[in-house]
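#struct-help
A.M.: can someone run this one for me? Single chain, 203 residues.
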Amino acid sequence: MTGLQVATPHGPARVELHCAEEGRAALLLGHGAGGGVRAPDLVAATRTATAAGVHVALVEQPYRVAGRRAPAPARQLDAAWLAVVEELGGQHFANLPLIFGGRSSGARVACRTADPGGASAVLCLAFPVHPPGKPEKSRMSELDGLDVPALVVQGERDAFGQPTPSHEREVVLVPGDHALKADAEAVSHAVGEWFARVLRLFD
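D.P.: on it. Structure tokens below:
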């Protein structure tokens, strides 16, 4: 594991690089709104990705690096993420397909920035379809805006709602709630099976 800081328009972001023996692609993963990169589902996805030959960058947003728990506005999150993408894509992951991903808020950032950032695929862990108890405030447009292959791994009892699959979007339900802590092996299995399919598209 290698740690580095990346300058962004909203302060430094912190990045943990986990390199695979065979670099077939690179996965950038963002954390949830009030959490960090040690979330169980992010750990599981990182281990599965590196085993599949995918480099992983765990990205800590500037507001978390600064010690704040309350998330920055969406436009700041997206701008900081794209700055990290530009840096890593040029310096560390040149000529590799980039997969954007994250859990919860990080998954939303990955979806919103997939097109401008040139993502080849998107991995969403616990995508917050709507605030708990407020299905009328849907965020499905962020998922629907993707035109690249996507996987959503969602807890069966997630109070933030359940996304629907589509032509390019797979949805896998696993035991547990929004935290995706109940069955890390199920998360790993879902991510691993998806990598086995999606990486063939890049060969």
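A.M.: thanks! Residues 2-201 form a domain with the Rossmann fold fold (CATH 3.40.50.1820).
D.P.: also worth noting: Strands lie at 2-6, 13-18, 25-30, 54-60, 98-103, 121-125, 150-155, 169-174.
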